Amino acid sequence: MLEVRGLAKRWPGGAVLFENLDLEVAAGELVAIVGESGAGKSTLLNALAGLDRADSGSIAIDGTQVGRLDEDALARWRRAHVGFVFQQFHLLPYLSVGENVALPLLLNGVPSAERARRAAEVLARMGLAGREDRKPGTLSGGEMQRVAIARAVAHRPKLVLADEPTGNLDEANAGQALALLREAVKGEGAAGLLVTHSETAAAVADRVLRLSGRRLAPA
């Protein structure tokens, strides 16, 4: 599902962040990437999503060469095929839980009734059935992260990217969120990448890679 070849990214001024980076992730596979702060983990996720252009190399997701898309095509592709989960949740407080989850579907032109149905379906899978009409601020941190995971997979993306998704959660809620993230990636047949500082969090993945010394290697 995801195939990366010879990827390189440099800081402004020319210092190399990572180079000659290769990575393959199968459909339904969750891969964790660990490494020290500043190693380039989040920059790598941004490059894979087309939020930040790599300096060289190629990224193919389900056969689409991301680097060959112009900015408009890239935005449309990302909206349809990428799901994000962040540490800070990034839920819109003025929208209901259901509307937050349905937002990617709205942006992709899915009709209203289908948006509501799919949002309710994915929330139920996250153990949040009946919360559709509540505002995010009425939920616990663990519940908000489950809403964020639901939003990331509601549009059935090909690539799910999670950047320190449990950094604001206690151990119990973190474990539950990670289990649900893993289940969602496998259920949707997406390629999943989890960036984390936590070895415990990384243990939920099918494989763990370390980004260090400009390279990716098995941890």
Can you put this structure into words, describing what you see?
With 219 residues, the chain is of the alpha/beta class. Helix 3 crosses helix 4, helix 3 packs parallel to helix 5 and helix 4 packs across helix 5 (141-153). The two termini are 22 Å apart. It has helices at 41-48, 71-81, 97-107, 112-125, 141-153, 171-188, 199-202; strands at residues 2-10, 16-25, 30-34, 56-61, 64-65, 82-86, 159-163, 191-195, 207-212, 215-218. The longest helix is centred in the last third of the chain and has 18 residues, at 171-188. It has seven helices and ten strands. It has a domain at 2-92 and 157-218: P-loop containing nucleotide triphosphate hydrolases (Rossmann fold). It is globular and about 50 Å long. The strands form two sheets. It has a six-stranded mixed sheet with strand order 6-7-8-3-9-10. A four-stranded antiparallel sheet has the order 2-1-4-5, with helices on one face. Strand 7, helix 6 and strand 8 (191-195) form a beta-alpha-beta unit. Helices cover 36% and strands 26% of the residues.
